[in-house]
Amino acid sequence: MQRGVAPAGGKVSLLLCAAVLFSTAAVSVAYVQFEPVLVPKSGETKEAIIGSQKVTYGRATRQSFQKVARTTEDHNCILRGCQRMGEVLDIQRNNLTNFDRETLGKASDKATKVDFSHYPSGGVLMQEEDLGRWFMLYQFEKPNPGTVYRMRIRLENDTALASRLNVPLSVAEYGGLWKPRVAVLTPAGSMMGSEGIPPDGKLYEVAKCMLDAKRFDCLNNWDREGFVDIVEFMRYFGVLPATLLKDGRLELAPSEAIPGFKPYRYGFPYDISLSVNEDDRVENNIAKLYALGRLGAHGIAVMQDGFTVYMAGGKGGLFKFSADGESNDFSRGELSVAILRLKGGSGLTTVKKGTEFTIGWIPLGRTSAEAVAGFVTPDSPITFSDMFTHAESEGGVCPNGLELVSIGGEEECLKMIDAELAAVFEPERAAALVGGTVGVFQFSEMATRLDSDKFYLGTREILGGEVDVDLGKANGADNPNAPITPNECGCVFELQVDESFVATSMIAIMCGTSEEGGDELNKCSTEGVANPRSLTYVNQFEYLLVGEDTEFHENNYVWAWDPETRNPTRIFHASAGGGVTSLSWFQDVVGGNNYIGITISKPIDLFGWLSYFGSFDLTTAEKMSFSSVAVPYARGPKRLPISFSRVTVGEGEYFGGYKELFKTGMKLPRTGNKKQSIKLGQVVDSEYNPVQSYKDGPVEPLVVNQEEMRHRLGFTSMIDMCGSLYSVAVVDSLPGASYVITLKESKKTGKLQAVSADYSDWKRWGGLWQSAGGTISPWNSHIGGEVFEPDSLDFIGFPCLTGFSSCFKSRAEDAFEKSIKFIRYFGKYFKSLKNKFQNLSAVFNPYSYGYAYEIDVNKFGCSSTTKLMTLGRFSHGDIEIMPDQKTVYMTDTTAGREIGGGLFRFIAKKAGDLSEGTLYAAKLKPVFGTLKRFELKWIKLGSASNSELVLRSRKIKFTDMFDFIPSSKRCRLKEVNVKSNVECIDVKSKQDKMAAFFETRRYAALLGATIEFANVKGLTFDRNTQKLFLSISRVTKRDRIMLQDDIDGSSNDIKVSASDCGMIYEMATEETDDTEYDVSEFKESYRGTRDSGVFGLNQCSVEHPANPGVMTSIPGHNQFLIAEDSCNLDRGSNVACGHENNALWAMDPFLARGKRGESREKTRILTVPPLSALESMNWYAQIGGKSYISAGVNELYLGGFDGLVDKNEPGARFGYLGPFTSAEADKRRPEIKGIKQVCDDKKPSRGGRFECPKNFKYN
To answer: Is the pLDDT of residue 22 over 50?
Structure first.
């Protein structure tokens, strides 16, 4: 009967009345960006179901990596001595000549004459407020001496940043800058930077010479890098390395060789601010911040109070400076070092995500810039021996009175002489002596978070060592120690501060690993961070950005870490070799724009990048989400900087990842009778009693007296019926079973829960066959399909079941096995058949199976089952009901050794009623010159009603409809190729209608339809593009019918190129006389690849969807979802998978055309354990007033009676991502959302079509 129209959800959750047409122009421009899920590489992540946890609804904008400048480019430097960006300059700001670092002589002819730095280490955007001008301060780390350029910024096209004027800053007053390492914007609007690790005062003092090939006590032998740094730096004063070498001065002790160089002048933080002089010229105000200590800091964070500064020691340790006096005046104060204590554990500890430390503080001393000033002059006599007594250790043992400490991985024997001086000029050594945690972590840059009690700290490397264990109130001198395992990949920590901005604890939020997931080019796993250097926090949109500078990733990445989900997204990779040396968030800057600043050092083409992302529109949005960036595996992408291509700004919603509703093996109370329970996945007969299992015997199958479990679900749905929530779950078994599972929403957690279950009854249909895909109908019913239907030709007649070569098992083993399994539904087993084929035929009718079916559920959980014979009899893979509620498209799944299926269409006589209509089969014609496009026409097969077909199905036989000549004889009829077999058949007179609906595939082949599809899986209609999408999981060399045009008996319409990783085809819809949703073209839309990104057990690129299975679209949000079904089970016991872990992807249906050609945005949003498949994936717009994405996770099965591939704790799971509660989640057209949902709340009568739970009171 005609049923009402309802937007119940699912693939057709947007519904239209016949009078309301839906056009592409009417589609909302809204977009949904899911938080990406990384490729599982560790054992822990591989074995889990990991789902996206957050989504952003809003407006998507295209973004790309933008350049301000590159090193060696001309950028309008106004001084005579400098012309191009990155030139290394002397004290007069003239460019310096390059030299050979090995010989100290003239540089090779291939090298540039002018020395350039390709190592930008920071970029801060600042405004001179009086004139309102904007300037970017870029600093360069190496070679020495360091340089800072002030670049005036202008706008192009409202948002693009460009240079206008460029000038190098003079630091002559301070004797130059030593390897400037880090730069941040302070709350006062100035730039605070720090010189890098300074010359080692101890080595500088004890070395007997600088360079002498005849001696071993030279600085060059002990610290080659430090030696080169010094001779590079002397160029600042006009002293060239070649001159030092020629004059023999390098054979002297350092203090004699270069008496004007004082190592204790360098290694300090500095501050740069801008002002205007009387002539309205911008002036640079530079001051070294001596009171903060000579740390060679690798990270600095100025807290919001303007008094507290945190610094990461260049060789280790976390330090805090507390300023005295006025805010943002750092000329005097107290320096302290952190002591870290492991919380909640002891013994050997590997720091990983969630590892926590408490932080205590040990004061080192109080000082001022004024007190230090006399020690940092060119004539300063201070030496290492003024602060420490030192000696070499012997086997880790120090002389009496000296203490063994570890600094930057090196052990030393020290005793402090002058604690006040040591706190300023050797703070790391002083810190180690007083018990600070210095030698365990090599910290890097920091990021502050506005109006928060947290900030963030990068850890380039965990060196290893011992820390105290936190004993709470019992902390003291006798705290036990916990050894910390080294981790050369590093971590990032979140630090908690109190109301005084004093850090009290820290917890690891990201850690890299080299133990799992690395490869020969990436020592650390590319699915985790490696040697984090640069950090910035994107305030308002709440993301921590982390940039890498590592040799352990071939390409360095930028990660966006979400503090709500605590998960990272890879959003950028530099070109190979380039380090991400700085990241900065600039909010409401030039022209009211917002940018992410980024600098990249010496990539593969040598030239450093001074760049940015943006601008980002913050005016109406509360959340910003980035699209992800794939790991580059091919040579081309490796050599390019590639960023997120899309930013979605709008409303964010946290939904918490994948939630399991139920799984096979679970027992649920039986609805209406809680004294009984139903064990999900247990194979049962018609009276719901467990069947006995079979096992292979030498001649015949043997009964095993044990239950049979099937850990594979067919299409499983969610239904909201008048506010009552249900899931219809179907077991893909022989015989099949289906349940109506009652769902309730927990008032405490908001999660859906399965609370009870009941069977839906299939007795009037002779039971349910195996099931595959399906959909939710527009009228709110469950539509499924029986798959791999029994071949009626296999049941024409045999003298026996087994024992001889002429018996059923020998001639049709698969049909024998499946039918013997199925008749258990009737309580029959092999022994009861007495080895007689006619006994099997008496109970098993192949024409009872192979149909689409419908399960109706009412408000009370009562269910009604119907087999929709009008939709044809074939292997129903997936089904899509179009918005007109009349047109139905269907795939025909064939696989393995029996391939060759069709593409079918049904047009109902009445909207919303599939009980009568016309069936069609597709005819493809290749477009000349391509293997990717085909014209498509529809061949009418016949029209019928379900009632007449049901009546005929009970007695009809193959020979009633067809003449048939066995292959052993010469064919005098028509030859067709059906499931890899050439058959000689023809339709008998007046049997066309019955043949069309009971032997749909064969009849279509006889009429010339294309029956050549292999491994077809999913089918979905996308409203954004108005296209149907069809997935084919793979086309390999054994699928000859799709690869060749010379197959006997075939119409040979399809010839495509092989794809081990599968493909997706699209079919644009148009209105014709037959239907509003006709399709006339079939063309390739997406193809998986194995060209790159293939490793381990992954046979296809892990950065692209592979072997696509079921699909669905998210109406109004420009996304459709693709579930992978990547394991090939056609190789006997050798299961090969495109992806070790199948994934669910969100993909933009629209092709984007950019500089790198056509592409689609792809986001991995769910991964499942190995040897399992994703099924039952569907988008539900309205379930209890919320939206969901369902996903089932099935076990894999091979053929045979015991074909379960992985027998270790098996279970098929059904669950969801969601709920999505925001009003932005359901972005359907208002007139569609306003249509009243179908509600069947009428109590059924006993004996009607509905079967209700036990103890239900019928009307």
So the answer is: no
Average pLDDT, the chain: 91
Place of tokens 């004290």: 91
pLDDT digits (tens, 9 = 90+) for 1162-1172: 899 999 999 99
Quick one: pLDDT at residue 1117? Answer: 85
Phi, psi angle pair for 803, to nearest 5°: 120, -30
Is there a contact between 772 and 785 (Cβ–Cβ < 8 Å)?
yes
Helix (H) or strand (E) holding 359: strand 356-368
Q: Structure tokens of 1053? A: 């319409």
Q: What is the pLDDT of residues 1139-1158, one digit of tens each?
A: 999 999 999 887 655 444 45
Question: Which residue has better confidence, 302 or 79?
Answer: 302
Rounded Cα gap, residues 427 and 317, in angstroms: 10
Classified as helix, coil or strand, 1108 is strand
What are the phi and psi torsion angles at 113 (to 5°)? -70, -45
Query: CA-CA distance, 1167 to 1205, in Å (whole number)?
Result: 19
Distance CA 943, CA 1084 (A): 31
689-714 burial: b if 16+ Cβ within 10 Å, else e: eebebbeeeeebbeeeeeebbbbbbb
Instruction: Name the amino acid, one letter, at 325.
Output: G
Question: CA–CA distance from 1110 to each of 93, 893, 1206, 1207 (Å)?
Answer: 65, 12, 22, 25
d(CA 883, CA 1035): 31
CA distances from 357 to 15, 142, 349 (A): 55, 35, 12
CB 659 within 8 A of CB 1215: yes
pLDDT higher than 80, residue 1229 = no
Q: Residue 1: its pLDDT value, please?
A: 32
Asked whether the bond before 615 is cis by omega within 30 degrees of 0, the reply is yes
* CA 87/CA 79 separation, integer angstroms: 12
849 Cβ contact list (under 8 Å, min separation 6): 766, 767, 769, 786, 789, 790
Show the DSSP H helices in 495-651 as ranges.
635-638
Confidence check: pLDDT of 446 > 70:
yes
Give per-residue pLDDT as tens, 474-526.
Answer: 666 567 889 999 999 999 999 999 999 999 999 999 999 987 767 788 999 99
Q: Which one-letter amino acid corresponds to residue 708?
A: E
Strand partners, 852: 785, 868
- Residue 260, Cβ density class (10 Å: 0-12 exposed, 13-18 middle, ≥19 buried): exposed
pLDDT digits over 794-851, tens only? 998 899 999 999 999 998 999 999 999 999 999 999 999 999 999 999 999 999 999 9
pLDDT tops 60 at residue 896: yes
Other beta carbons less than 10 A from residue 1086's beta carbon: 21
Q: CA-CA distances (angstroms) from residue 930 to 806, 823, 964, 1012, 1087?
A: 47, 48, 37, 18, 15
Q: What is the pTM of this model?
A: 0.90
| 80 DSSP assignment | T
pLDDT (0 to 100) of residue 111: 65
Is residue 715 within 8 Å of 771, Cβ to Cβ?
yes
SS3 for 1135-1171, per residue? Answer: CEECCCCCEEEEECCCCEEECCEEECCEEEEEECCCC
How far apart CA 926 and CA 1083 sit, in angstroms, is 10
Q: How far apart are CA 32 and CA 27, in angstroms?
A: 14
Structure tokens at 539: 């305030």
pLDDT classification of 1116: cutoffs 50, 70, 90: confident
Whether 550 and 524 have beta carbons less than 8 Å apart is answered as: yes
- Calpha distance 937→1010 (Å, rounded): 10
Helix and strand counts by DSSP (H, E) for the chain: 19, 73
**The residue to which tokens 């030696």 are assigned:** 227
